[in-house]
Write a structure and sequence with these properties.
The chain is mainly beta and about 160 residues long. It has two helices and nine strands. The strands form two sheets. Strands 1, 2, 5, 6, 7, 8 and 9 form a seven-stranded antiparallel sheet that branches. A two-stranded antiparallel sheet has the order 3-4.
Length: about 160
C-alpha cells in the first residue's frame, strides 16, 4: 500500500500544493464515494460511522507526471461539477483550508477543498444552486493523499 500523507496543518497543505503545483492546469480524473450505509441480510438499515464516509478523488495535471489521489474521510458535503455547456472543467488553482467555524456550535476542524482559490465556504455551500460556472467542493474531517502512476482507468485500477 502506498504511504499516505495526512493533511493536519497549513504546512501539510503547503507541501501538497507545492507537489501538485497548486492544482494549476489540473482536472478531476475520477471520483468514487462510499458512505458505509447498507441494508443487511435481515433487511435492516445500517448506518456508517464518520470514518466510513469516504470519497476518493484522482486528479491529473499537465505539470505533474503522476496522478494525485486524495481520500476525503468523514465527508460532510460534496459537490462535483459535471458537464458545463460554456465552461471547461480545468482547474487553474484550488482552495484548500482547515476551518473550525462551518458547523454551528461545533468547532471540530473540517478540511475544505474546492476547484478555485476564490471559493467562499460559507456563501457557496449555503447557496448550493445550479448556476454556471459550477464550483466543485468537498468538506471532510480528514484528508489523505499520495501520488501514483497515471496508467489507471477511471476507477483507479491499473491499465493492462
Amino acid at each position: 500500500m502506498k504511504e499516505q500523507k495526512e493533511i493536519k496543518t497549513q504546512q501539510d497543505i503547503d507541501d501538497l500544493m507545492q507537489v501538485f503545483y497548486g492544482f494549476h492546469d489540473s482536472c478531476v480524473f475520477s471520483a468514487q464515494y462510499q458512505s458505509g450505509n447498507f441494508v443487511d441480510e435481515e433487511n435492516a438499515m445500517c448506518f456508517g460511522l464518520e470514518e466510513n464516509y469516504v470519497l476518493e478523488v484522482i486528479f491529473h495535471s499537465q505539470w505533474q507526471e503522476k496522478a494525485l489521489v486524495m481520500y476525503f474521510v468523514g465527508v460532510r458535503q460534496c459537490c462535483l461539477a459535471g458537464f458545463q455547456k460554456y465552461y471547461m472543467n480545468e482547474m487553474l488553482d484550488c482552495y484548500l483550508k482547515i476551518h473550525q467555524d462551518l458547523v454551528a456550535g461545533d468547532d471540530t476542524p473540517l478540511i475544505v477543498w474546492a476547484d478555485c482559490d476564490g471559493f467562499s465556504p460559507k456563501s457557496e455551500i449555503a447557496r448550493n444552486i445550479l448556476q454556471e460556472p459550477f464550483t466543485s467542493y468537498i468538506v471532510a474531517s480528514k484528508v489523505y493523499w499520495h501520488l501514483e502512476e497515471k496508467n489507471v482507468d477511471m476507477f483507479g485500477r491499473k491499465k493492462c
